[in-house]
Amino acid sequence: YFISCFVEHQTADKHLTESSDVPFLEAMGAFLFNLHKKEVFHYDLHTSNILTIKDSKGKIDFCLVDINRLKFKKPTKKRRVKNLNRLSLPFDQYSILISKYAEMAEFDVFSFAHKQLYQRKKYQIFRQIKSLFKDFYKKNVATAISRNTRKEAVD
Question: pTM of the predicted model, to two decimals?
Fold first, then answer.
């Protein structure tokens, strides 16, 4: 069975393109902290999988979508760092979010931010290398396989 409900929220990425408001980023950091505290990790965490809405009093509500890659695990510091690195926010926005997260987790903010930024750079490099390999494969390997397949069909 599959159960779902309709929620009239906009994605966090749309909200963040309109503005870089600090209260919103801090609320999102608090939301992610509370998820991790409850041992919930989204392994496809990015701003378009986080829905958000403000109520009439200005309270920000969050909701996750694309939850097929949700996992329930103990929230180690390493796991938290890796999970938050999936967010591809600009540096200034990311700094606000992880500062709030560290504050709520009672981590040393500077130490946690340093670890986050180091791991984020590693993750970005990994993604660039992965992209290069995909491009290389498409241009060279897949093309060669396609040619050989056509050649064998003709023979």
Answer: 0.75
